[in-house]
Design brief:
The protein contains 13 helices and 14 strands. It is α+β, with helices and mostly antiparallel strands and 455 residues long. The strands form four sheets. Strands 2-1-5-4-3 form a five-stranded antiparallel beta sheet, sandwiched between helices. A five-stranded mixed beta sheet has the order 9-11-12-14-13. Strands 6-7 form a two-stranded antiparallel ribbon. Helix 8 runs antiparallel to helix 9. The chain starts with a helix and ends with a strand.
């Protein structure tokens, strides 16, 4: 509105100047009196001076507006500059622009302060790196974990000096990844879970690194795991040793008389048969105990994966060939969906096959005596990860069993060793992935294996 009034004012002055110039030309052409020519000329000069004055006043308001924006002085009142000049409308429009810019700046500052406050109080360390690998944003917890206590805004070279293990891990992960590392720049060391993701902000690539000291949680979980394993091992060993002790005592009683061994002539056929039965039982329990200890050794001595580039479709094709005939024989409808073409992972082929075979085998066992049994194996890509899902429509796993399903030596099967799923989890963990299970009543059970994509 103020700008429209300004344009009308300028237009009127231009028209008046044009009319004055025509009149001046006319009076000069008719050779009018000098007084008349001088009067028209004076009028024209007054109109030109008024036009100049109008433009100068406008420039003054615009200059004040630009100065306010340049120096961040949003408290200036432009109406005072235009007071008495008839430019209040234009000044008001300029003042609205200043208020809009001030509001936007205040909102931006508020958002920045909110972000800073949140970063200072969250229990996760956050670091962002520019395209040139220089830190842009880092919260106090990140500084504390990396040992940069007295540095407000460290450079990448500062981090390389203080926490070389961390910077090496971040560099090796590139634009995305997940890795667990141990820092040694503190007396006790810190176990960090480091996650890297990349985004584009304003067209420029930015890496967001989040990490957390999970040493206390790991220690707690280790204690709980060892307590659980100890209870299970004690239970299994006592189950074997108790009958062994009892049978040994029985054998001694059969062969002893008054604290001395019986003569051979005193040992009856019935006694020999009882001793034979006792020794057979002892041998069986000894064999079972040996197999149990062998299972423990297999779990504790898992070799590191020998990774190579593998096509997910090829892995599933081999599993499909392996289980196609057994599934048909059991009346199980088994379907495979390999997901996106040329989807690859970096993995130990033998170990990953062992995990998938174990999960499909468990699925077939869960469908025993089921009507219309179904197994579905599918593949999905979720950002930088591959999810392989093995679903069966069998009975749901009870919640109390679901909590212990990955605990070593825990099994609900009469002939199970209880290390299959715990071994599978360890294999997937060694590959930088995860394995999880979901089970709901009337919906079935899904085991999900998540691995990093090879790109």
């Amino acid at each position: 509105m103020g700008f429209n009034k300004y344009m009308i004012r300028i237009s009127i002055r231009l028209v008046l100047i044009f009319v004055a110039m025509l009149v001046l030309a006319l009076v000069i052409g008719k050779q009018a009196r000098l007084f008349t020519v001088a009067g028209v000329s004076l009028l024209l000069l007054v109109l030109v001076a008024e036009l100049y004055r109008t433009i100068a006043r406008t420039n003054l308001i615009v200059e004040s507006l630009l100065d306010s924006i340049r120096f961040g002085d949003f408290n200036k009142t432009l109406r005072n500059t235009a007071a008495g000049m008839g430019f209040e409308g234009l000044a008001d429009s300029a003042q609205e622009i200043i208020h809009a810019i001030a509001s936007a700046r205040i909102e931006k500052e508020t958002q920045y302060q909110y972000l800073q406050t949140m970063l200072e109080h969250i229990h996760t360390a956050v670091l962002t790196l520019s395209e040139n690998n220089e830190p842009e944003l880092i919260n106090p917890l990140a500084l504390n974990i990396l040992g940069l206590y007295n540095t407000r805004k460290p450079s990448w070279s500062d981090m390389e000096k203080k926490a070389p293990v961390f910077t090496k891990a971040v560099t090796s992960m590139g634009d995305s990844g997940r890795e667990m590392i141990r820092l040694s720049n503190t007396p006790t060391g810190k176990q960090l879970l480091v996650l890297v993701n990349s985004v584009k902000i304003g067209g420029a690539p930015v890496r967001i690194i989040t990490f957390q000291d999970i040493e206390p949680e790991i220690e707690q979980k280790e204690m709980e795991s060892w307590q659980t394993i100890s209870r299970i091992m004690a239970h299994e060993i006592m189950n074997s040793l108790t009958p062994l002790s009892s049978l040994t005592e029985t054998g001694i009683m059969l062969l002893e008389k008054e604290g001395r061994p019986r003569d051979v002539a005193e040992v009856s056929q019935k006694t020999i048969e009882n001793l034979y039965t006792a020794l057979r039982t002892i041998s069986g329990r000894n064999r079972a105990l040996t197999e149990f200890i062998g299972s423990y050794r297999q779990l504790s001595r898992l070799p590191p994966p020998e990774k190579e580039e593998l096509l997910v479709a090829d892995l599933l094709a081999e599993i499909s060939e392996l289980y196609e005939i057994p599934c048909k024989a059991k009346g199980i409808v088994c379907s495979f969906s390999t997901g996106p073409d040329k989807l690859r992972v970096s993995a130990d082929e033998a170990q990953i096959k062992q995990v998938l075979i174990n999960l499909v085998k468990n699925a077939t066992e869960a469908l025993a005596d089921m009507e219309s049994p179904v197994i579905e194996i599918s593949v999905k890509r979720i950002l930088h990860q591959v999810a392989i899902e093995i679903y069966n429509n069998g009975p749901a796993i009870p919640p109390d069993i679901l909590e212990k399903i990955f605990v070593p030596f825990y099994s609900t099967k009469t002939e199970g060793s209880g290390i299959g799923l715990s071994l599978s989890r360890q294999i997937i963990s060694n590959h930088g992935g995860q394995i999880a299970v979901e089970s709901e009543r009337d919906k079935g059970t899904t085991f999900r294996v998540v691995l990093p994509v090879f790109e």
